[in-house]
Amino acid sequence: MNNKEKYSLLIKEEAKRLGFLSCGISKAEFLEEEAPRLENWLNHQHNGQMAYMENHFDKRLNPTLLVDGAKSVISLLLNYFPSEKQNEDSYKISKYAYGQDYHFVIKEKLKELLNFIQEEIGEVSGRAFVDSAPVLDKAWAAKSGLGWVGKNSNLITQKVGSFYFIAELIVDLNLEYDTITTDHCGSCTACLDACPTEAIIAPYIVDGSKCISYFTIELKENIPLEMKGKFNDWAFGCDVCQDVCPWNRFSKPHNEPLFNPNKELLSFSKKDWEEITKDTFNKVFKNSAVKRTKLEGLQRNISFLLGK
User: N or C: less crowded end of the chain, CB within 10 Å?
Assistant: First the structure.
């Protein structure tokens, strides 16, 4: 076994020990196929008011602009599928926001993995990324053989589904690269048929500016009136295109205690949501991604669901 194989194996074993669902490795190079796709998506303004998607176009496509001398992109998946769901009579939040904000949870694990690499292998420079920098997570994960980008534009993995976070370590170390997996969406159109706002405008193309997640989290002004009655009680994010995906029959509950929800959240009724106070919001969503929308944003979303 050569060093590249040995190091790659070491890294994958440590990733597993840290609780990652899987780990794949690809060569750090310009994402040629993604360039026209990203350009087209931006030209059609599918990013809505997410102006940050237009920034750092080159960095999004070229990891060597993010890490000097980058040789490998280590992609990692972390499961967040919950064992318990919200009460039926409730406004819904995306399952990824049930527990603690994933940015902090994953950053810690990535730090540990990078430290491990430096201790076991030696002088290795790298950076950790958890969707807060211009990195095309799904493209790298697919290139690393961890799944395929489905018709709902989420990464999907056989036997696992898609309820997981994606993160990367970009390092200046030559490693053994994994092979790309094939697309298993077939003729299925479940996600296109089920999207409440018809945001999946064609297979593999999502108009971000029509997505419930965009309206409830990213949009800072009032939600457009033509969307009234289309949100199916989603108050923060939306999981519809994942919930209907046949591959998510295979989702298994995560085993990350930090992703466990506050018990109060699970038992919230619509009335509880409508009457939520600053204190309750701060207590229930103490370290949650829901904080991104702030109490005012959440109240705006609930008023919209109430037809106000």
Answer: C
